[in-house]
Specification:
Length: about 525
């Protein structure tokens, strides 16, 4: 990218206190009982329908594209607008100091939306003397400049030739965060890595520390699973990591962007206490006129969010992460998926990674909430063709000289939605017991006759076999015929979805039954 466009004024790398001074003048900002600020935004989720990759060759990307001449006209319009604005510049790194995938990054944004650079600054690793602007992933961000002619007059453009993302007419912080990370993921793939929409944690066991990766769509339990403690485990990363040859893992962010709806100090004490501090930032959380925070009020949106620095919590040093021991694929299902299933082969692991099944949440906007989705890799930010993710995962798994376990965890329900009599919820303590047992290798498995993966016959500290083997629940409820029909329909739908991704390695489609 190089030189930034000129502005009326620029405040470069202000402190967090200086950014709070800006924010306290914002009409949509409110001081909370915790001493931090909550900002209510007009846009409450990612604007996927307004996001375009800049290219004159649409064939290389799986995302909607925009011709370069059309982009240049929008870029010129944004640059002219910036020239008359007071701007804030925040610079840092994606990736810690020892990561081979560390890259400079920056966001350049209107000062009138200072909460966004405040939140972004907590996620960047700090700038140093080696930081180079010509290598920086750059986000040019004008929340108050609308984009007429585009969906809801919002626009996000991604120019990977210049490593620049431009954001128009959106005041939601997630576009700043993903603006840089989306470009970094594409760049990391070009380096031979697989950037995953994943959390990472380190779990102590009698056999040593185990590194677990957790992938899942936003809002399906990724951050919760990452932060829930097993054997005093510590989180490393809550959102994006890179898996490389031989199983090495590298993190990206120096902080966390956590979903707040339903945040309970009993089940998620680490996240709760980090966000209930003066240093945290909140966005779209319910706050009454007295500053009291209600994490269970979703009357405005269920996609309330908050950021905090890793330094605010006990965490594992990301510079010492090492190799991944297992991968958890979160699937907030409501029917046949057991609380945990172990993949029986590389091909089956890639198949379920590519299926990326879950129920959509408000994080993806109203159009996704509550709907059954399949998103390859549970990563809606991958710019290339999705089959490339699956083939890269297969390649990396085969490069490992140890047993890398891949598991699908259902963080939803078994037997149907809440309105179905006899259906059951997979609760946070259930998932936590499973993660602990995976790390300690104490689960007993048997092959599922319908799907071919392994299901658990026994999990320590887990008291409900019907969640482990859904067939039992359906049989007890007299729904065996329904179970058989759903098995057949699900297999057919999964194979049809995978068949849409021409280019996948042989054997992957067949691996789902």
């Amino acid at each position: 990218m190089g030189t930034l466009p000129p502005a009326r004024s620029i405040v470069a790398n202000p402190t967090q206190d200086e950014l709070r001074d800006f924010v306290r003048t914002m009409p949509n900002a409110q001081r909370t009982e915790f001493g931090n600020f909550n900002v209510t935004t007009e846009v409450t989720a990612r604007s996927a329908g307004s996001t375009f990759v800049v290219t004159d060759d649409p064939s290389w990307s799986s995302k909607p594209t925009m011709p370069r001449d059309q982009y240049l006209a929008e870029a010129e319009r944004q640059n002219a607008y910036i020239a008359e604005q007071d701007m804030v510049l925040v610079e840092g790194y994606i990736g810690p100091e020892n990561s081979p995938l560390k890259r400079p990054a920056r966001v350049f944004i209107e000062a009138s939306n200072a909460n966004i650079p405040g939140m972004q600054q907590q996620l960047y690793y700090p700038k140093d003397a080696d930081w180079r602007e010509e290598e920086a992933f750059t986000v040019l961000y004008t929340p108050n400049l609308s984009a007429p002619g585009y969906p809801e007059e919002r626009l996000v453009t991604i120019d990977v030739d210049e490593w620049t993302t431009r954001v128009f007419g959106i005041d939601y912080f997630g576009e700043s965060k993903m603006g840089g990370l989306r470009m970094w993921m594409d760049w990391a793939f070009r380096q031979g890595a697989l950037a995953m929409h994943a959390g990472a944690k380190v779990i102590p066991t009698e056999d040593g520390e185990k590194v677990g990766l957790i992938i899942g769509l936003s809002g399906t339990g990724k951050t919760t699973t990452t932060f829930t403690r097993q054997n005093n485990s510590l989180p490393v990363q809550d959102d994006i990591v890179a898996l490389t040859e031989a199983g090495d893992v590298y993190s990206t962010e120096n902080g966390c962007f956590a979903k707040t709806f339903g945040l309970d100090p009993e089940f998620e004490p680490t996240i709760y206490h980090a966000l209930a501090s003066p240093e945290a930032w909140l966005e779209n959380v319910a706050v009454d006129e007295h500053g009291r925070v209600d994490f269970f009020d979703d009357s405005y949106t269920a996609n309330g969010r908050g950021t905090f620095s890793l330094s605010a919590i006990d965490h594992f040093d990301p510079r010492k992460l090492g190799k991944a021991d297992f991968l958890l694929i979160l699937n907030a299902n409501e029917t046949l998926q057991p609380a945990v299933a172990r993949m029986a082969s590389v091909e089956q692991a890639v198949a379920y990674f590519m299926l990326g099944e879950t129920k959509g949440t408000s994080a993806g906007g109203a159009a996704e909430a509550g709907k059954s989705l399949r998103v390859p890799g549970t990563n809606p930010f991958f710019l290339g063709h999705e089959y490339l993710q699956g083939n890269r995962l297969a390649e990396l798994m085969r490069s490992m000289d140890y047993d890398f376990g891949v598991f699908v965890l259902n963080t939803g329900r078994v037997g149907g939605g809440e309105d179905v009599p006899g259906s059951k919820n997979v609760k946070i303590p259930h998932s936590s017991a499973i993660v602990k047992a995976i790390a300690e290798e104490t689960i007993r498995w048997e092959r599922d006759p319908d799907f071919g993966y392994l299901v658990a016959t026994e999990v320590p500290e887990f008291d409900d076999p019907e969640l482990l083997q859904p067939r039992r629940l359906y049989e007890r409820l007299g729904r065996s015929d329904e179970y058989a029909r759903e098995v057949a329909a699900l297999k057919q739908a999964r194979q049809a979805f995978l068949a849409e991704h021409a280019g996948l390695e042989p054997g992957i489609i067949e691996a789902v039954g």
